[in-house]
Amino acid sequence: MPVNSFNHFLLSWMPDKSKLKRPYYLTVANALEADIVSGKLASGTRLPPQRELADFLDLNFTTITQAYDLCRERKLIYGVTGRGTFVSPLPGKNIISGRTGRGRDLIELGLVKGFDKIRTPILEASENVLKKGYISELYSYTDIAGHLHQRAAGAHWMKQMDVHTDSEHTAIFSGAQNIISAALLSLFRIGDKIATDEFTYSNLIGMAHLSHIRLIPVKGDEYGMRGDELESICRREGVRGIFLMPNCANPTTCTIPEKRKDELAAVIAENKLVLIEDDNTGIPLITEGNYHSMFSRLPEQTIYICNSTMVLCNGLRVAFAAFPETFREQLLNALFYLNIKTSSLDAEIMTELILSGKAAKLLQQKTESAKERNRVFDRYFPEAAVPGSPAAFFRWLPLPELKVDEMETERLLLQQNVNVYCSYRFTVTRNPHSFMRIAVSSPDSTEDLEKGCAIIRDFIGNNRL
């Protein structure tokens, strides 16, 4: 029986004792996960000490230790020496509850904002749209995939990325995340497996979890995912799909060379995988040389996400998807039933940017700014991974062994008004290597980036083991 009475001494988490069953540690761990995922336990909540929880549940201390250890492996909780155990931010969540910066003093290096202070071309395009004689027509409910001329503009933009499609096989979504969500829910089923890089887009991890789809990490090298490793995974795991970011992948900044794309395409074709190709850069527009998309290699198996439009202006929430005829019905049904159609006005502004030539000029302007920011970053962190593009909007910094874990690293840096994201947010499975993604494109000025980098460098130096 419990030693203490909990009638007037409430714990921060008090699971239902009537639902306990053997093995008890697993029941407790699953209950804790359910309350975290549902939002019942907010990120940053301090959990009961293990002995107090064991007393409340009338279980052995070691049973609670096992449950907590399992939840740590699942990245649901983390411990801080001398302070206790806390609920982790879920993958894709921005900041632990209660962790806020001091207004304008916060140096944002976690969220990738993409030089969103460069707004003049966006404002000009918005003004031009409002002057058009057919503006009222944009407010009528029309084709779920978007107005025809807007889809045609998207197809024109994607052709410059070596994605040759037409308006009938183009759809407009309110951001790349919604394209991923629609693809997962319409083309896959519960329990299906999708191959990914070992570190990948955090929102994909979150959406796969909600969809009950398993992500299978595939080993890679400096050139990205390896073809032989993918072939081995296909034989061993029976994956049905694959997610790739060939251009400056988020978060690792790796860019897949053409030869490696050929190797991967051969495996994907042989195993009839559904490929989700997420291009978040627009690199083909700003680089010279021989470039070919994965879509051009596998047009009947690929959903291409043109997320470079988000690089132009995050606030517009416009992204284009190119798809083959075989995926049309499922993907457009998902777009309709999920009710994630983008604003026609936003799509019209993006169309104006593309057709007026302002989009290409804006991307070039941001590219030059990104190159400058990368040079600043390299002065502070010469040990960082070399990005796939000299104009990367974020960087991937390997961390030495520190006195604190990644979650505590984020919290302590935020106390110094620097927001960063560490690699636990992006890993598909438990990974012994520790990294930090630093969004060089997000600070309001180069001076802010310098200040943030200096704080991070000093923090790492002061917390090395």
Mean pLDDT: 89
Round the Cα radius of gyration to an integer and report it.
24 Å
* Helical amount: 40-55%
What are the low-pLDDT stretches, counting only 5+ consecutive residues below 50?
92-100
Total domain modules: 3
Strand content: 5-15%
Number of helices: 17
Biggest beta sheet summary: 7 strands, mixed
How is the CATH topology of the largest domain named?
Aspartate Aminotransferase, domain 2
* Class of secondary structure makeup: alpha/beta
Could you tell me how far the N terminus lies from the C terminus, measured between alpha carbons in angstroms? Answer: 43 Å
CATH superfamily of the largest domain: Type I PLP-dependent aspartate aminotransferase-like (Major domain)
Instruction: List the strand order in the largest sheet.
Output: 4-12-11-10-9-5-6
Q: Got a strand count?
A: 16
Any guess at the CATH architecture of the largest domain?
3-Layer(aba) Sandwich
What spatial form do the alpha-carbon principal axes imply?
Answer: globular
CATH C-level category of the largest domain? Alpha Beta
